[in-house]
Amino acid sequence: MQDEADLLLGDVGWDSLGPQADLATAWDRWRGFAEIAPAMPSPPAGDVALVNAAGNEDWFQFQHAQTGQADALGLYFADDVEVTSFGLMYRSGLVLGDNTEPYQVARQFAQAEGLRVPVEYQRRRKVRLNDPALLIAGPGHCMWGHWLVDFLPRLALAVQALGTRLDDCIIPLPSDTPDWAEALLRTAFGIPREKLLYYNYQHEILVCRRAIIPTFVHTDYFFHPHAATIFDSLARRFGLDVAPTRRLFVTRLAFRAQHPHATHAYAFERALEELADRRGYAVVAPESLNIDLQFSLFARARAIAGISGSGLHNALLSPRGSVVAQVGVPNPVQSRIAALRGHRMVYLIPPEHDEQPLPRSCMSAFFEAVESDVFQPNT
């Protein structure tokens, strides 16, 4: 009997695409890596205040303060790259990627969808694309936070490096990509609808004769310092039509009513939101705003509070010295955003079980930490 491993499509890394090259050479040969910024340590974390940590302060402090090495940023150029599902990439019959978290997740999805078994993979219909394909989408392409943290910065690198060559490129996207993603690309970088190609993510394989694959601007969510310039540039373009808002509270109640399994549902959330309103926070539901207004609000905010999730990732646009106050610590991504953007963090550690109430004193302490002299937002 044939070994199960022999039935699976293997992996291939970036080194298979050739050595480092200048942009013009990589574009002409469709091979190699055009570097934009060399590998660098991620920025160090700033201040953090913990509320209701229940004796686990050292652990949370450690999670917040972690730093790492961010890989070099740039664009990979390759010929004959195949794309399917949510942006899975294959070359020469092998899954293309590395060992960082986004590609590990990609391989897990490929396994779950049977796309590592040759016979299953080959059942999909192949559609050929001759125009240069700019590949930015991947796992999480239906989630706002992943567009802010993962995909939009990849496009920014391409815009920076390619210049007018970008006009020759097509951006393939899975057919279930939300409408707001198209609006995001148009608002942030002026990408018109005709430059997007939607492929049937369940049945088609897009065969890209020429492909450009930007790096992520983080390595396992340790951000490269260069990423700050991307968000600085975006922030400068927004906020001109909105008066400065000192405090925002990001509500998830309306979003959860439509997507009940999408986020944590804490029993105390409505009470926390009501307290925020009484303390002078502007309660906002980002998903209900157009992208211009959403970017404008966060680009001018000085204090942002809310439940952990994509809504708080909008703080990528907020100024250095702002305070971000988050309920829950499902992962360290918000701390790493804070390190990149020079934010100060406040964490409210919720009860062990979502349905448990939270004492009013803890809620008050949460906002008091934001508003204290130590964590006073800059004006």
Notes on the structure:
The chain has 379 residues and is an alpha/beta fold. It folds into two domains: 4-30 and 73-214, no CATH class; 234-371, Rossmann fold, CATH 3.40.50. 31% of the residues lie in helices and 23% in strands. The chain is built from twelve helices and 20 strands. The chain has helices at 23-29, 57-65, 101-112, 118-121, 144-162, 179-189, 227-236, 253-258, 269-278, 291-300, 333-341, 360-371, and strands at 11-12, 32-37, 40-41, 48-51, 69-70, 73-84, 88-91, 94-96, 125-129, 133-134, 171-174, 196-199, 204-214, 218-219, 222-223, 247-250, 282-284, 303-307, 323-327, 344-348. Strands 1, 2, 6, 7, 8, 9, 10 and 13 form an eight-stranded mixed β-sheet that branches. Strand 11 (171-174), helix 6 and strand 12 form a beta-alpha-beta unit. The longest helix has 19 residues, at 144-162. The N and C termini lie far apart (70 Å). Mean pLDDT is 90; it is low at 1-7.
Radius of gyration: 22 Å
Average pLDDT for all residues: 90
Task: Report the sheet-strand fraction.
Answer: 15-25%
Number of domains: 2
Question: What separation lies between the terminal Cα atoms?
Answer: 70 Å
Number of helices, where a helix is a run of at least 4 consecutive DSSP H or I residues: 12
**Percent helix range:** 25-40%
Count every beta strand, where a strand is a DSSP E run of 2 or more residues: 20
Low-confidence stretches: 1-7
Largest sheet: 8 strands, mixed
Short description:
The protein has 379 residues and is α/β, with parallel strands linked by helices. The chain has helices at residues 23-29, 57-65, 101-112, 118-121, 144-162, 179-189, 227-236, 253-258, 269-278, 291-300, 333-341, 360-371; strands at residues 11-12, 32-37, 40-41, 48-51, 69-70, 73-84, 88-91, 94-96, 125-129, 133-134, 171-174, 196-199, 204-214, 218-219, 222-223, 247-250, 282-284, 303-307, 323-327, 344-348.
